[in-house]
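Hey team,

Filing this mostly as a record. A colleague (T.K.) asked me to run one chain through the structure pipeline before their review meeting, and I want the input and output archived in the tracker in case anyone asks later how it was produced. No errors, nothing strange. Just documentation.

Input sequence:
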Amino acid sequence: MTRQGSPPPGPGDRPGDPFDGAGTARATVDPRGVLTSWSEGAERLLGYAESETVGRGAAMLLADGVPEGGLPAGVRPGGGAPRWNGTVTLRHRDGHPLDVRLLAHRQEPAGGSPGGWLLVSALDDTEAVAEDADLGRWAFDQCPCAVAVYDTGLRLRRVNEAMGEVIGLCEDEVRGLRLSEIGGKPQSAELEEQMRTVLATGTAIDARTYMRTGGEAEEHSWSARLAPLRDEEGRVRGVCLAAHDVTEEVLARQRLQLLNSASVRIGTTLDVNRTAWELADVCVPRLADFVSVDLLEHLDTGAEPPPGPVTGPVPLRRVAHRSRTEKGAPDAWVKVGDVQVYPDFTPLAASLAAGRPVLNVMTDPVMRRWADEVPERAAYARKHGFHWVMAVPVLARGTTLGVVVFSRFVGAAPFAPDDVLLAEEITARAAVCIDNARRFTQEQNTSLALQRSLLPHHLPRANAVEIASRYIPASPYPGVGGDWFDVIPLSGARVALVVGDVVGHGIQASATMGRLRTAVRTLADVDLPPDELLTHLDDLVIRLSADAGAEQTSGEVGATCLYAVYDPISRRCTLAGAGHPAPVVVTPDGRTYPVELPVGPPLGVGGLPFESVDFELPEGTVLALYTDGLMGGREDSDEGRRLLAEVLARPAASLEAACGAALSTLLPDPGTPDDVALLLARTKVLDTAHVATWDVPADPAEVARTRAYVTEQLRDWRLEDVTFATELITSELVTNAIRHATPPIQLRLIHDLSLICEVSDSSTTVPHLRRARAFDEGGRGLLLVAQLTQRWGSRHNPTGKTIWAEQILSEENGEG
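Output structure:
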């Protein structure tokens, strides 16, 4: 009977229990030191019946009473140790003392029990002692751990059954042999040397080794414990070798390492092909002997991949492959770049249709069918000994991108379930990187196409300057930017040179650049001075920034710009900048200097003025306009300008050659983190032989005389074929100035690549083209001018305005 508060019956306490509980003396004591249970074994040990002990103090059992200081610390109420063991002298019921080896365990309160201590002691069992030898022998022979015993000469004396399976030989066949003689491999000799150390030092050694077991072809990983065997006097009389097969643990660790390596090595760039090669490199040879990466055929053209699984015969393009035995697998059946159509029953097509890995051995019916349809591929597989093939689909964000095939041809080990999971995980990570690279490439191509459409394809011909330019997009992969340059022909044979830089990269920056370039061209047609033009451009950028904020796009819009106007007749150059680096000037005699340009705010700041500078340039002067990307990230921009000036000051075969030299000097590395725009302009001069000027009195009678001057000048320039049209244009413009403007009036003809007729006066009123009614006597003059010329317009100057009209000359006349 079990009393309340006592522990549940143990083995041997229940009727019919096959285990003998009487071989152990067992009792429990509550926190107050009162006995709460008493076993049959305890009665056998001390002679007390259960009724004589339960409910009484445990101190009654002590032969000498409670020792000074109370019970042992581990057993005292409030003692901190969870377990105590030692020898205690107890009193037998007949009165004689008895030394008892006691083990005490603390019991925590549970299920209404107050807790306390469990006291146990083993009883002598003569029959059990007699069986110890048999138990020891059985334990050695049947131990699941592989064990071998060597004597002091390192000769094998005993092996258990597990070690016999490892060696592949029974004990009788290897007894008396040394380990190096049994294994016959370098690993065996290394273990034997460590056993020699154990004999010499008497210290155990833990070792790791790799070797095949029995007749298995694959190597196993083993953890071995080499421990000394001592006699009663402590002398080392042999070595015990206990080995554990830790292959699965090692493989699991290797898989984790491979997964970590894949996370680091795959996706280092935003390039689809490079990412595919990284995937193949990571998995060979640690997961497979041959890995191929095939993507959908049209994926590299920018086409969107299909959502979900792909069914039917699938055309795939080989993007990358790697072989264990040959660098780059030069003799692979499918070459990189080739497209192959895979029937729906093949592993590649089946995995794409199922959306999961497909595992096949070469003897499967599917593989035999494939071999029958493509015998050349089957011959290639037999030649290299392929035996296992695993196809894993490349899936990312719900879309199918391609398939990765893992193959094995070294050894006979199949793909384990953990290998399939590992291949699937690595492929999934690579798929996200491939999809990111695909999306980036698609956006970059769109941005580049947009940028190419917005930048000038051909710079216009002009007698004012000789032009050379370079544009280099940022690399390797931050996205195209918003740098731009332009050359805009202006009236009066002048030319505008523009260079600018929009903050940021990508489609948004390219689109903003296009809008600003268009705005500059529009404002240049109005012939605004550089500082006024930048003021209007600043207002536009502010509006663009506000629109971007309202649409919650990519934040604020900012830009810098430099606008220069050069007049080949006066040789004057007028410049204004908005937060942009000042240009570099190189004179014909080799002198260089940066333009002292007032520092203006970047476009988009608003509320601050822009200032312009005006200076004269000798003929043959080189003016270098650039964006800050040309400085190559140098913290000292002055150093970059100095290098640019030095390069441009050197003699060069042409302006194009000077452009190339500047880039190779300032940007020696092929990649640049920012876009680079460089515009070089060598100035020319239109001398008096190409310009004719007349002052016209404000008298209608002077119109005929003016026509005569023009006719004579055209004859000198050999432009007789445009005399009639030029006389009409001159008559209309001079007549309008005499009738509606304020003197002084001046007529100027400019013979450049075109023929320009200009009439200047002191009035600021600009004429407008209008449609004349049927009975109107006037209003048709400007319409006539517009019909006879390529373009016409007006511009303001400090003393009034100028009306101009331009006729395109034939190539022969234009050279004059």
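Quick notes for T.K.: The two ends are 132 Å apart (CA to CA). Residues 36 and 448 are 89 Å apart (CA to CA).
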